[in-house]
Amino acid sequence: MGNAPQHLSPKPSTVTVTRTMDEAHIAYAGVSGQAELIRRKAISATELTQTLLKRIERLDPTLNAFRIVLHDEALKEAAARDAGPTPPADRGPLYGVPIAIKDELDVAGQLTTFGGAARTKPARTDSESVRRLRAAGAVIIGKTRMPEFGQWPFTESAAGGYTRNPWDTARTPGGSSGGTAVAVAAGMAAAGMGGDGGGSIRIPAACCGLFGLKPQRGRVSTAPAPDLWHALGTVGPLTRSVRDSAVIYDVIRGNLPSDRYRAREPATTFTDAATTEPRRLRIAVCSRAATPGVRLGPEQAGALERTADTLRELGHDVRDFDLRYPQLPPAFVPQFYGGVRDEAALVERPDLFERRTRQTLALARLFPTPAVTWAIGHGERLAKRINRIFDDYDLLLTATIPSVPRSLGALDGIGSLHASLRALPYVAYTAVWNVCGNPAASIPAGLTPFGLPLAVQLVAPLHDETTILAVAAQLERARPWAQEHPLLQ
């Protein structure tokens, strides 16, 4: 049914590299591993980029992770890195490392399609997060698939077709950052940028066996836009390891005057947090979903229980807690419709919207700007209520998604309302933290007997990504996952 995982050994940080090293060792070395190979001159940025471009050429016709591969541009950028500053200390932490970009973030000279066909004018400049990636030395290798305007937790669209999960190509990789997740999980990019307005980083991370942190609202600039889906959306990477995520966040975090939201400065760098043993923490475990009627499947329930047991073994005070969630739709729904409406206003050919998007925009008329403004304020009130749990606990452990990834075709033949109902179980554990603004991360939690990824979610108090990173890295040391990957031909 699924593809069996392949284990790589030794880890990239200790591997003895030669010019004949295996492609898989290069592809799955991750951000830190690939940057180290370049720093040690075991491989050049050009050779690394060529390796991944060849891998994309071989794998992506089946997986469909990329909307566009920037072949020539990436090679030119890699060559510039190879001719760049010496010594290596003068280079950024992503120097020469290929990164994929979700197609809702601007890349200069390329279309920002939002997953559809209605955009015809290329972006004039990079979005702020992409600009910072380049400034740290990254090579932009391509733009990845997403459902139109990121509306669904399934990466399927009329313009882009199905994006397939590399662990089982008959299943969804989740969404809306599904193309990015597939690119990273299949070793076609060291990491990739996504966006999360209801779970769109965490859901595909869970489906594809990756680490995906939704940062605190306002942690990463959304420029040139003042926000992403009003108060709901955040920007961030999907990576193989916790450290890779931390390294990228230390590159991209921070604001511009145009940003609507701002996060408090962390007590330490994210990279330091990911390499520091956490103190003994109080951790609540809740299997209840925020969406009424959603039940946790046996595979995910087992992953949640095993993770709780591991945290106890690591010395934490872990207790079951029946969290009573507030009603989210009054806060979430107006912002969702308002966010899609705002992005749809940016396109040049609205006549090319897919049918579901036209239906979404018709419903968006029910939520004019005053309703969206009220919803933002209501979300802030709900956040104060639900964050009372952190008066007694340092972290909350939940599922990320309630079941294993479903089969492809989730959106076939259905309209916007039906698609929303089908999406509800997938966002049942994630969307609440978009409403509240808290940082939350999906963490790999093993594989099913059929080789499908399992995951759990860690949620922290407002502005406290560093505690999540410290505990997630501790879990990763206890049960390494970054070397597990689907077996691809």
List keywords for this structure.
489 residues; Amidase signature (AS) enzymes; 35% helix; two-stranded antiparallel sheet; disordered N terminus; alpha/beta
Using only C-alpha atoms, the radius of gyration works out to: 21 Å
Number of domains: 1
Taking the sheet with the most strands, its summary is:
11 strands, mixed
Which range best describes the helical content: under 10%, 10-25%, 25-40%, 40-55%, 55-70% or over 70%?
25-40%
- Give the overall shape: globular
* Spatial sequence of strands, sheet with the most strands: 2-4-3-7-9-8-13-14-12-10-11
Structural class: alpha/beta
Structure, explained:
This protein is 35% helix and 14% strand. The chain contains 16 helices and 15 strands. It has helices at 23-27, 30-39, 45-63, 71-82, 128-135, 178-185, 202-208, 242-252, 270-274, 298-313, 329-344, 355-364, 369-386, 416-423, 431-436, 465-478; strands spanning 5-7, 66-69, 98-102, 139-144, 156-157, 161-162, 191-196, 211-214, 234-239, 282-285, 317-320, 395-399, 440-447, 453-459, 484-486. Helix 11 (329-344) packs across helix 13 (369-386). The longest helix is centred in the first third of the chain and has 19 residues, at 45-63.
